[in-house]
Specification:
Largest sheet of chain A: none
Number of helices of chain B: 9
Distance between the termini of chain B: 38 Å
Number of domains of chain B: 2
Structural class of chain A: mainly alpha
CATH superfamily of the largest domain in chain B: Naphthalene 1,2-dioxygenase Alpha Subunit, Chain A, domain 1
Shape of chain A: globular
Order of helices and strands of chain B: HHEHEEEEEEEEEEHEHHEEHEEEEHEH
CATH topology of the largest domain in chain B: Naphthalene 1,2-dioxygenase Alpha Subunit, Chain A, domain 1
Strand content of chain A: under 5%
Oligomer: heterodimer
Largest interface: A-B, 41 and 48 residues
Radius of gyration of chain A: 16 Å
Number of strands of chain B: 19
Chain lengths: ~120, ~400
């Protein structure tokens, strides 16, 4: 960070300040990054993220539902990325009780690819 | 018949509707024979219409994508011209055969240029410029255009046919299935999430995993066990099977009483769910949920030879495509096309659906790689199919008709 850069007003919208400790690790802008984060985490880390987010998810989605992706403020955008990370880790919690079970095809052999003009970054 | 008995009855509905398919064991050999695969290359992949992509991938003049078609030992380039027309060519320079496009997609300014000696082609395939042209002996540029490949579109899907004179148009080829499902919102504004995997498995075995719902409670016991099954329908029997001369539709049951987890409950509040489903509404073309069942989850269309298309009650479109390169190697490509979400809450719901679906697909692929080596052991010679696996019986039969030259 340079000295000239203005300090952010808040990492997340003020009503969600309690979730700010999650931002550095889990507020990730692309599906690829969220999936990589899940794969690189331990089950304890995933569960801690889930347990912090899950009680707040409905309030988060109600808040985001009043906004549009175009022109979304940075702090609301970070909140959206947190919510999408929760969707990403859900199978680890609700299906497998494991980051990724060993009896599915290896994640590195199931590769995301981009269809030009059709695959969004988000 | 009440709902409970409909899915527990001893009646074999599909064998009754399609007696010509028989009910006996089906040979495994076509799924493990290198020779059989060599015949499939000629008899099928060089003859029929093959899906290669969507029109939205190449929105502007000069946009192109290139696709290798391993079973036909071909590579094609599909490019939009200055006149807006989509054309396809063999991806091969007329000079010394170099592959023109090495990347999968891109955009050309004015001309398509070969990297080897900079021969340049217009978007309509005409040879436009030759480097150091006066050193050639008898060069007639008009004769040296790119080799065209037949290309047609249906509902925004681009299909090519490597036969120089296809006996049928794409619309004729898709036939009753295409007419029945045409008009579904295929071309609505969608985002596409896509994955690929190289699977060590015969392409027909791979497709078979998606042509029945019988495996779902077992293979997907952790991810989506109850979605197409439940107390009234414990073995996930389909609500309808429609077989056409080449293609087929499997209509998959949706359990109205899925035990939802906490995330399902959140997701379904903000958008149509997948495990636990929201209300399905909207006018459907006659070929989608053809029996108009209130317990309909999605249709799985098999578009011969190697494309599957899931049309979901929640508006999601998923295509699965299977490109064999050898008798036991298949490049699997799945594309999840999601409607543009109305709200950010709906976007969350979609993201959860996508994570659920990806989990289920990764479960499917692991199973396939455990099947193929067993088939190749030749310890058993036949598959045993029950009535609700008639889709596999049908697909293998259509393949065999082509290979024997009867199709």
């Amino acid at each position: 960070m340079t000295l000239a850069e203005p300090r952010e007003a808040s990492l997340l919208p003020p009503a969600f300040a309690d979730l700010e400790p999650l931002v550095a690790a889990w507020s990730l802008p692309t599906e690829e990054q969220r999936y990589a984060k899940r794969a690189a985490s331990t089950m304890e880390e995933i569960r801690a993220f889930h347990d912090a987010m899950m009680p707040r998810i409905q309030a988060v989605l109600d808040y985001l539902d009043g906004l549009s992706l175009d022109g979304l403020a940075d702090n609301a955008r970070r909140l959206l990325y947190l919510a999408l990370s929760l969707a990403e880790i859900a199978p680890s919690i609700y299906f497998y009780n494991d980051v990724m079970p060993s009896d599915v095809i290896e994640p590195k052999r199931f590769c995301r690819w981009t269809v030009p003009h059709m695959t969004p970054e988000l | 018949m009440d709902a409970a008995s409909e899915f527990k009855s001893e009646t074999k509905r599909w064998a009754h509707n399609y007696p010509e398919l028989g009910t006996g064991p089906v040979p495994i050999e076509p799924c493990i024979s290198p020779e059989y695969f060599e015949r499939e290359r000629e008899a099928i992949f060089r003859r029929v219409w093959l899906h290669v992509g969507r029109v939205e991938e190449i929105p502007h003049a000069g946009d192109y994508f290139a696709r290798d078609i391993p079973p036909a030992k071909a590579s094609i380039i599909v490019i939009r011209g200055n006149d807006g027309v989509i054309r396809a060519f063999h991806n091969m320079c007329s000079h010394r055969g170099n592959k023109l496009a090495w990347d999968e997609a891109g955009h050309c300014e004015r001309v398509l240029t070969c990297r080897f000696h900079r021969w340049a082609y217009a978007f309509d395939g005409k040879l436009q410029r030759v480097s150091d042209e006066n050193q050639y002996h008898q060069l007639d540029k008009a004769d040296l255009a790119l080799s065209p490949v037949n290309v047609e579109t249906w509902e925004g899907f681009i299909f090519v046919n490597l036969d120089s004179e296809p006996p049928e148009t794409l619309s004729e080829y898709l036939g009753e299935l295409g007419r029945g499902i045409g008009g579904w919102p295929f071309s609505a504004e969608r985002a596409c999430y896509s994955y690929r995997s190289e699977v060590h498995c015969n392409w027909k075995v791979a497709m078979g995993a998606f042509q029945e719902s019988y495996h779902v409670p077992f293979v997907h016991y952790r991810s989506v066990p109850e979605s197409p099954a439940g107390p009234d329908n414990p073995y996930a029997r389909p609500i309808a099977v429609r077989l056409f001369p080449r293609h087929q539709t499997l209509s998959v049951y949706a359990n109205p009483n899925v035990k939802a987890n906490a995330m399902d409950e959140v997701a379904v509040r903000y958008g149509p769910g997948m495990r636990k489903r929201g209300v399905v509404s909207g006018d459907l073309p006659p070929g989608v949920n053809p029996t108009r069942s209130p317990r309909w989850g999605f249709d799985m269309e098999t578009i011969f030879p190697n494309l599957l298309m899931m049309l979901w009650g929640n508006g999601m479109l998923v295509t699965h495509q299977f490109w064999p390169s050898e008798y036991n190697r298949t490049a699997y490509e799945v594309r999840i096309y999601l409607r543009k979400p109305a709200t950010l809450g709906a976007r969350f719901s979609q993201e959860y659906n996508r994570a659920v679906l990806r989990s289920a697909l990764m479960e499917d692929l692991a199973t396939l790689e455990n099947i193929q080596p067993m088939l190749e052991s030749r310890a058993k010679k036949h598959f045993i199919f029950q009535d609700n696996e008639i889709g596999l019986r049908h697909h293998l039969k259509v393949v065999d008709e082509f290979v024997r030259g009867a199709a």
